[in-house]
Design brief:
Strand content: under 5%
Radius of gyration: 24 Å
Order of helices and strands: HHHEEHHHHHHHHHHHHHHHHH
Largest sheet: 2 strands, antiparallel
Oligomer: single chain
């Protein structure tokens, strides 16, 4: 209890902002209601959890699936066990999501505190008050738990880079596995962490040892999922098979993308399909799970056909679309289907344009200052990798919103450098005046 009082006393400004965030989140939850949903993937996830609780089957959109990672399904099933499948389930899940958003808020502050003052770290947390973040936290989707686990993974990674404590090492593994089971886009984080540790001259033998231990633990936790996928689909599916549809949707983004009537899809598909795909096209598969699996595989083939045709007919527009227009969507778009308190989506876009410009300016400042560049590269590499991944597939505000906090960390860092520079300049100027007077 005394420790809590000490923490609050030492972080009064942040605690006041956190309290405001908690109150605002409760007001938003009351405004939307416990049963609020968008009748989309959120309902599919809830049904998936209920199905797993009742029949121990992992489904998505009503069929046995490996389209999603099973983490959220497991969480919902656990809450079904504790609270039933009625209205209490929704109430408990909404409260859980609120708590996860509070942990994300605190973790963002703690990461920022590694590189910025308490005041500046508290100020950047204000970005999480934007309507789209508040709205997102009321949906039973992967975004809120993914954001929490990814920030916790990054926080302990940065702490390990700095302090190299075993506690952080094992917490990285724990939160990485949790994150991976929610959404697989975190997969390459260890690769970036290894590079940064090498740049920081971490003992190579110890690094190899830690990589082997961590890799073994992660593999042990993934093995049941991989085995389940092989047993269900007779295919090696280490994470998910869901890339086909986003890849296809992404070929309809940007400028001057090819229209369907321009491409002879049938000939292209005939060149790429095998016996299994032909069975799907001829509707010879008796089980729904295979229909879904092969429908997504079919989407991937169509996407590749469209991308090939686009490249052959208009390389310039394709390059612009994948390197400029789609990344812009990832830079400034929001995930906000319904208005909160009459606030339009335009407000979110303006906020994200503003924080993106601050992110660019802060990045330049950090590079010029040459302070802790490896840590900066770690955060920025994760951000750029995810932007590139979704720009290649399907650029969407729902994917972008969980990346914005990485920008907030860099903003806090850059603002702190500016503050220290200005403070030191004022001190030098003031000391010179004192010398002149004396």
């Amino acid at each position: 209890m005394n420790r809590v009082k000490t923490i609050i006393k030492e972080n009064k400004f942040f605690c006041s902002i956190l309290l405001l965030y908690i109150v605002t989140s409760i007001v938003v939850l009351r405004e939307l209601g416990f049963n609020y949903n968008i009748n989309s993937d959120d309902i599919s996830y809830i049904n998936s959890g209920i199905e797993f609780y009742k029949n121990a089957r992992i489904t998505m959109h009503g069929v046995i699936s490996a389209q999603i990672m099973p983490g959220l399904t497991f969480i919902i099933a656990l809450f079904c066990h504790m609270f039933g499948t009625g209205s209490n389930l929704m109430i408990s899940l909404k409260i859980l999501y609120l708590l996860m958003s509070f942990i994300s808020f605190i973790t963002l502050y703690k990461i920022s505190r590694l590189y910025a003052s308490k005041i500046i770290s508290s100020i950047v947390c204000l970005f999480l008050f934007s309507p789209d973040f508040m709205w997102m936290n009321n949906l039973i989707l992967t975004e809120t738990p993914y954001l929490m686990f990814s920030l916790l993974t990054i926080y302990h990674s940065l702490k390990f880079i700095k302090e190299r404590k075993s506690q952080d090492y094992y917490l990285i593994i724990l939160f990485y596995i949790c994150c991976l089971y929610i959404r697989p886009s975190i997969a390459l984080l260890p690769f970036f962490l290894i590079i940064i540790l090498l740049l920081k001259r971490y003992d190579f033998k110890d690094l190899i040892k830690k990589c082997v231990i961590a890799g073994t633990i992660v593999l042990l936790f993934l093995t049941p999922w991989i085995y389940r996928n092989y047993a269900a689909f007779n295919k090696f599916i280490p994470l998910t098979y869901g890339i086909g549809n986003p890849l296809l949707l992404g070929t309809y983004q940007g400028k001057n993308y090819p229209l369907d009537e321009e491409i002879n899809i049938t000939n292209c598909i005939n060149e790429k399909t095998d016996e299994d795909i032909n069975k799907y096209l001829n509707k010879d598969y008796p089980y729904d799970k295979f229909k879904k699996y092969y429908s997504l595989l079919y989407d991937k083939i169509v996407a590749e056909c469209r991308m090939k045709y686009w490249w052959e007919t208009d390389k310039i527009s394709m390059i612009k679309s994948y390197l400029i227009y789609k990344p812009i969507i990832m830079f400034i778009s929001s995930f906000y289907w319904d208005e909160l308190f009459g606030i339009s989506d335009r407000v979110n876009v303006y906020i994200h344009i503003f924080d993106f410009l601050l992110f660019i300016a802060s990045s330049i400042i950090i590079i010029i200052s040459r302070r802790q560049l490896p840590e900066f590269l770690f955060i920025v590499s994760i951000y750029i990798y995810n932007v590139a991944l979704y720009s290649y597939t399907f650029a969407y505000g729902r994917y972008a919103i969980t990346l914005y906090p990485l920008r907030f960390i860099i903003i806090a860092w850059g603002l702190n450098i500016i503050y220290k520079f200005a403070r030191d300049k004022i001190k030098i100027k003031y000391s010179k005046k004192l010398k002149t007077v004396s």
